TrEMBL record:
Glycerol-3-phosphate dehydrogenase NAD-dependent C-terminal domain span: 269-415
EC number: 1.1.1.8
PANTHER family: GLYCEROL-3-PHOSPHATE DEHYDROGENASE, GLYCEROL-3-PHOSPHATE DEHYDROGENASE [NAD(+)]-RELATED
Pathway as given in its UniProt record: Phospholipid metabolism; alpha-glycerophosphate cycle; Lipid metabolism
Keywords: Cytoplasm, NAD, Oxidoreductase
GO molecular function, one term: NAD binding
Taxonomy of the source species: Eukaryota, Metazoa, Ecdysozoa, Arthropoda, Crustacea
Subunit record text: Homodimer.
NCBIfam families in the cross-refs: glycerol3P_DH
Subcellular location(s) of the protein: Cytoplasm
Predominant place of localization: cytoplasm
Listed name of the protein: Glycerol-3-phosphate dehydrogenase [NAD(+)]
PROSITE patterns linked: NAD_G3PDH
Organism field: Hyalella azteca (Amphipod)
């Protein structure tokens, strides 16, 4: 009798095409089905095949549907993604995410994007994005999918979101996140695409993902890579690295981000992924100084190599447990190279040497509202190195910070790294 009821209920659910229904895979329910008559077992098998993919890894997020006694559960409703930020990278990633979720029925079609409101040619930027589907200020020349909706209020943007993508210049993160405290959906998770650190009390630094995670009380993953926004928006092939420890979430994130031109590799070395993304902006500033001084490609290669060694050393000292392989992912060596050749930090640092203007002046003149991360990250990192008396172990980072602050001339950078600890260590080994 009970088994007939089960079969009837199951068939009714299938007929109604409740595509988010699947079977409970708990031990209890499995035992119940095994002991059921054959016609029921057939139904169970069909259901499992019908829900392939969902059955094995979507179930941890299931909510009971009507009664768990009958062994069915309902998958949580389609997941909603929002994007907190809409600059150059924020808009490029909105193009990818908006395009992908349209094809995925377990994600909501609408992707809200928080836009720091401003007027562009007498119109509100949100209005421009929502009518013309283009962020004319920060990513001109690229259409955004129509399901990307610009919202000027951050709380409205994030309301009901299951996955929040944070992609703002790091200097604004706390101000933008504070209104979100206590407003997020339970079980919401975050992904930081932000490259930078925050200053921590007592002379330290904090990973941006931790700042967000602690403030909003949500688990955080990161996405970093050799991803110059304009090239990504032009759909030129590149790779990216997601740092994520939750396998189920990692699958979702891969679906949300990956395209034929944007290939995702997921690793679980989350801190190292984020540290690479933050520190390479300092090195790119140094590469810009080299370009401004006209020193040539060999010198720039030395800056890139020593920069990579300092990034690895930084992880060894402050984030022990980092894996060497992570530095060979897109977030490591690849991002370092692309930023040292094609990034904004490099470009402004080159002009700093050749023009004699300040970095702040050049940022305003050259970037049309986009923001530099390198000089500020150099200051944050060196504040920490100084307080720990470790500046001599990171002479490149230290020299770049001093140049940005006007404490020494760009031409002195090479003097500071001529006897780099890497050279001395190798000489001693010989
Ligand atoms: N642009 C790129 O090629 C890439 C950038 N990133 C990283 O992504 C993060 C975000 O960078 P982008 O999207 O390029 O931003 P962006 O450099 O284009 O910055 C402009 C954004 O900042 C916003 N903004 C300006 N003043 C603000 C304020 N007072 N409060 C809040 N927001 C304000 C603007 O509205 C705009 O959305 C950074 O950490 C960057 O390092 C990562 C990969 C590539
Ligand atoms: O992070 C970037 C590319 O991966 C962009 O670097 P810039 O901020 O120097 O343009």
């Amino acid at each position: 009798m009970t088994s007939r009821l089960l079969v009837r209920t199951f068939h009714r659910m299938v007929r109604k095409e409740l595509s988010y229904c699947t079977l409970a895979v708990g031990v209890r329910s499995r035992r119940m089905f095994v002991s059921a008559p054959r016609h029921l077992r057939l139904s169970v098998t069909l259901a499992a095949a019908w829900c392939r993919g969902a059955l094995f890894w979507r179930c941890s997020s299931c909510r009971p549907f009507s009664s768990t006694l009958i062994g069915f559960t309902k998958m949580s409703s389609p997941k909603r993604i929002c994007i907190i930020g809409s600059g150059n990278w924020g808009s490029a990633i909105a193009k990818i995410v908006g395009g992908n979720v349209k094809k995925l029925d377990h994600f909501e079609n609408e992707v809200r994007m928080y836009v720091f409101e401003e007027e562009v040619n007498g119109r509100k930027l949100t209005e421009v994005i929502n009518t013309d589907h283009e962020n004319v200020k920060y990513l001109p020349g690229h259409k955004l999918p129509e399901n990307v909706v610009a919202v000027p209020d951050v709380v409205d943007t994030a309301a009901d979101a299951d996955i929040l993508l944070f992609v703002l210049p790091h200097q604004f993160i706390k101000t933008i996140c504070r209104p979100l405290v206590g407003t997020l959906k339970p079980n919401a998770v975050g992904v930081s695409l932000i490259k930078g650190f925050d200053s921590a009390p007592g002379g330290g630094i904090e990973l941006i993902s931790r700042v967000i995670g602690n403030l909003l009380n949500i688990p955080m993953s990161v996405l970093m890579g050799a991803n110059l926004a304009k090239e990504v928006a032009d759909e030129k092939f590149c790779e990216t690295t997601i740092g994520c420890r939750d396998r189920e979430l990692a699958r979702d994130l891969r679906e949300v981000f990956q395209t034929h031109y944007f290939r995702v590799v997921v690793v679980d070395d989350v801190e190292a992924v984020e540290v690479c993304g933050a520190l390479k902006n300092i090195v790119a500033t140094g590469a810009g100084f080299v370009d401004g001084l006209g020193y040539g490609d060999n010198t720039k290669a030395a800056i890139i190599r020593l920069g990579m060694m300092e990034i690895i050393k930084f992880c060894e000292v402050f984030y022990s447990g980092s894996q060497l392989g992570t530095f060979f992912e897109s977030c490591g060596i690849a991002d370092l190279i692309t930023t040292c050749y094609g990034g904004r930090n490099r470009k402004v640092a080159e002009a700093f040497v050749s023009s004699g203007k300040t970095i702040e002046e050049l940022e305003k003149e050259m970037l049309n509202g986009q923001k530099l991360q390198g000089p500020q990250t150099a200051a944050e990192v060196n504040f920490m190195l100084k307080s720990q008396k470790m500046e001599d172990r990171f002479p490149l980072f230290t020299a770049i910070d001093r140049i940005c602050k006007g404490e020494m001339g760009p031409d002195q950078m090479i003097e500071c790294i001529r006897n780099h600890p890497e050279h001395i260590r190798k000489s001693h080994n010989n």
